[in-house]
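Could you help me review a protein record that somebody else here produced? Do not assume that whoever made the record got everything right. The record follows directly below this note.
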Amino acid sequence: MIHYLTKNYDIIYFQDESLLEWKKKKHSKKTGRKVNCFSFGKQIQNSYLGKIKAKLVSLENDKSFKISKWSPTTKFCPNCGCLNKIELDERTYHCECGYSYDRDVHAAKNVKMFGSTKRAECLEQASVETLASALSELNSDTTS
């Protein structure tokens, strides 16, 4: 899977989800109430999905770019900029501005948008730092 992604795409954007924190609600046999089951996150982390994420993290700055888990990829409307609450059982994202899209495709498009924006900012900052360093070296060479 990683080979396919790196061969077919110049850059892979992904969100830094803490898979170990994923939890699943299940019923307690003792109380009959719903309780959090944190082993679900551990199962995901150790699954193929967790291995793909680990490999993408190791490729970061070369072929992949990670965005913060706090980026509102599911809530953000790319049309008007509003943040809208969406429940887990809602499969379509709707905004008051009229924008509507499949929840997962919508979030994936936002991951790409946030990632490409943040990556451009990082590249711009690196260019400024490289230029400043080169000018500093040039100035020290001419004064010696």
